[in-house]
């Protein structure tokens, strides 16, 4: 049920933006006046929204706020279809979540990811070679931002290069917020599921050392996960490894190039790249198009939060992008400070569900930005910033194309 005077979420940032990724001022208002607020979600009714950093950390880490209790239920949410992935790492609580996460943690440790740097550098160099070889102007999204994370995650999973092109349409439809015919979303999910199921069958017939091969062994010989968990694992790793980083890289480039002095600062001091990536992660609201609400959680018992009581069964949403602008944690929170130190952003989440691929995303973003800054220090937009096109109807905000010249 919707309460009177409950604000509709997502808020409409485009009405206020000077940059296409600006945060709606409603978040700042709520942090100051109503840090735990009732909002009306696009589907399913009202939920609690936390907007401050401290409360966000609590909800993300406290086991009294459950992801598993949200799976498969028609609860308040951003997406048209309820989350049905009961076997997903994203929709489980410990200890089931911990059991699955342990199976792939080794593939994404800092040491293992660092060892991938030469290969990621090789991939980026090849993409930039092809882009510059074709001449300017060029679309850096289709040339680098989209294919880079897809290539990397497919190599980790062991998906052959000739199949990479299959996934763009499937993933694009799978992450849609709505559709004239919701069946199109369902069909995309089914296509991804069928492909990964086929990959599992191939690994059984011809074992490999890639991540999917290792998961098949864990399923067949170790009995450490079910068949459904195995396939859902593969689908989630593919989507998460592609969609998020691709949008982040495109958005970061827009943020830097729409204010040329920002790009010039990095070009003048490439040593800033690691801190710049962390600051761009904090500053850029990836999920601004849906309020940055992430995955909803359900309170398992009454919890005091932000001076109010969340009742057992209530849905709580956490806009990490709002927590990342909390002035009690970040000095000059609405400014992009490329040299910012001790950056406690929550873009990768917190607690048990902290992003499994955070180190991989950091590596890809650092290598891509570092390579472009080094090789194309004069990179600039080939169109006015307000003419850049944006994806519509997606869970994540992202540029559709980013024409550049150099």
Structure, explained:
- The protein is α+β, with helices and mostly antiparallel strands and 406 residues long.
- It has one domain (13-405): Cytochrome P450 (Cytochrome p450), CATH 1.10.630.10.
- It is built from 15 helices and 10 strands.
- The chain has helices at residues 25-33, 53-61, 96-105, 110-114, 117-134, 140-145, 147-157, 167-174, 183-205, 211-220, 227-257, 260-268, 273-283, 320-323, 358-375; strands at 36-40, 46-50, 65-66, 138-139, 297-299, 303-305, 308-310, 315-317, 380-381, 403-405.
- The strands form 3 sheets. It has a 5-stranded mixed beta sheet with strand order 1-2-8-5-3. Strands 4-10-9 form a 3-stranded antiparallel beta sheet. It has a two-stranded antiparallel sheet with strand order 6-7.
- α7 packs antiparallel against α11 (227-257), α9 (183-205) packs across α11 and α11 (227-257) runs parallel beside α15.
- The protein is globular and about 60 Å long.
- The model is unreliable at 13-18 (pLDDT under 50).
Helix fraction bin: 40-55%
In CATH, the architecture is Orthogonal Bundle
Could you describe the largest sheet, including whether it forms a barrel?
5 strands, mixed
Order of H and E elements: HEEHEHHHEHHHHHHHHEEEEHHEE
How many domain regions? 1
* CATH hierarchy class name: Mainly Alpha
- Helical/strand content category: alpha+beta
Tell me the quaternary state.
single chain
> Rough shape?
globular
Biggest β-sheet: strands ordered side by side in the sheet? 1-2-8-5-3
Could you please say which CATH topology applies here? Cytochrome p450
What is the terminal-to-terminal distance? 54 Å
Tell how many strands the DSSP assignment holds.
10
Mean pLDDT: 88
């Amino acid at each position: 049920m919707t309460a009177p005077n409950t604000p509709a979420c997502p808020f409409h940032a485009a009405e206020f933006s000077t940059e296409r990724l600006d945060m709606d001022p409603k978040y700042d208002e709520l942090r100051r006046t109503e840090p735990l607020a009732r909002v009306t979600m696009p589907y399913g009714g009202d939920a609690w929204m936390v907007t401050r950093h401290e409360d966000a950390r609590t909800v993300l880490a406290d086991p009294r706020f459950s992801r598993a209790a949200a799976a498969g239920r028609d609860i308040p949410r951003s997406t048209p279809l309820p989350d049905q992935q009961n076997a997903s790492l994203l929709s489980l609580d410990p200890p089931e979540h911990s059991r699955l996460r342990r199976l792939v943690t080794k593939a994404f440790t800092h040491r293992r990811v660092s060892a991938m740097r030469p290969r990621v550098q090789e991939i980026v160099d090849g993409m930039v070679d092809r882009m510059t070889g074709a001449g300017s102007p060029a679309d850096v999204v289709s040339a680098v931002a989209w294919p880079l994370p897809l290539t990397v995650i497919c190599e980790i999973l062991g998906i052959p290069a000739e199949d990479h092109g299959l996934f763009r349409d499937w993933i694009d439809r799978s992450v849609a917020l709505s559709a004239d015919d919701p069946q199109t979303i369902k069909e995309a999910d089914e296509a991804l599921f069928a492909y990964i199921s086929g990959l599992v069958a191939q690994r059984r017939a011809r074992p490999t050392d890639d991540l999917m091969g290792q998961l098949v062994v864990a399923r067949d010989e170790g009995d450490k996960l079910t068949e459904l968990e195995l396939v859902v694992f593969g689908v989630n790793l593919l989507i998460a490894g592609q969609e998020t980083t691709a949008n982040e890289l495109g958005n970061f480039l827009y943020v830097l190039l729409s204010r040329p002095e920002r790009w010039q600062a990095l070009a003048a001091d490439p040593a800033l790249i690691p801190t710049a990536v962390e600051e761009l992660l904090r500053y850029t609201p990836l999920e601004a198009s849906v309020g940055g609400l992430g995955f909803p959680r359900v309170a398992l018992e009454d919890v005091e939060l932000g001076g109010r009581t969340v009742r057992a069964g209530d849905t709580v949403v956490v806009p990490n992008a709002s927590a990342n602008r909390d002035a009690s944690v970040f000095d000059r929170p609405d400014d992009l400070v490329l040299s910012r130190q001790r950056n406690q952003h929550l873009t990768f989440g917190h607690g048990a569900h902290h992003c499994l691929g955070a180190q991989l995303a950091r590596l890809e973003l650092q290598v891509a930005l570092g390579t472009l800054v080094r090789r194309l220090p004069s990179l600039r937009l080939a169109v006015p910033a307000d003419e850049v096109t944006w994806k519509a109807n997606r869970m994540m905000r992202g540029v559709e194309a980013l024409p550049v010249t150099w």
